[in-house]
Amino acid sequence: MYLDTPDLDTSVWQGDRMAGYSGTPLATKLGIKAGELIGWMRVALTGRKVSPGIFEVIWLLGKEPAVARLDAAAERWSEEKKSAPV
SS3 letters for the chain? Predict the structure, then answer.
C-alpha cells in the first residue's frame, strides 16, 4: 500500500471524530499546506476540483474505498512525476 504510514491516526475514521481532523499532521509530514493536501485528496476521491466537504466524502465512501482511491492516485501521481520532463 502506497499510503502505509504507521503514524497515521486511524481513529479519525470513526464517525464524528473525522470532522475534527484537519489533515495538518500529514500535510506537515509531506511538507505542504493542509489546504493543498485536501485539494489533492478531493481530486483523488471524486475526480473533481469541487465537491462536498472532503471529510463527508471520505465518510460516505468508507475507509477501505477511500484509502484505495487515495492509494491509487498517489501511485499514479508518483509515476507521472517520474516520467515528467525536467
Answer: CCCCCCCCCHHHHCHHHHHHCCCHHHHHHHCCCHHHHHHHHHHHHHCCCCCCCHHHHHHHHCHHHHHHHHHHHHHHHHHHHHHCCC
